[in-house]
Amino acid sequence: AQSVTQLDSQVPVFEEAPVELRCNYSSSVSVYLFWYVQYPNQGLQLLLKYLSGSTLVKGINGFEAEFNKSQTSFHLRKPSVHISDTAEYFCAVRNSGGYQKVTFGTGTKLQVIP
Amino acid sequence: EADIYQTPRYLVIGTGKKITLECSQTMGHDKMYWYQQDPGMELHLIHYSYGVNSTEKGDLSSESTVSRIRTEHFPLTLESARPSHTSQYLCASSDERGGAGTEAFFGQGTRLTVV
Question: What burial class does residue B1 get, using C-beta atoms within 10 Å of its C-beta: 0-12 exposed, 13-18 middle, 19+ buried?
Answer without folding.
Answer: exposed
